[in-house]
Amino acid sequence: MRIAVLASGRGSNFQSLIDASERGDLPNVDLVLLVVNNKEAKAIDRAEKHSIDWIFINHTDKERVAFDIEVMAKLDEYNVEGIILAGFMRILSKEFISNYKNRILNIHPSLLPLFPGAHAHRDALEANATKSGCTVHFVDEGVDTGSIILQKEVVVKPDDTEETLSSRILVQEHIAFPEALHLFSSNRLKITSNGVEILPP
Question: Where is the Formyl transferase N-terminal domain (predicted)?
Answer without folding.
Answer: 1-181
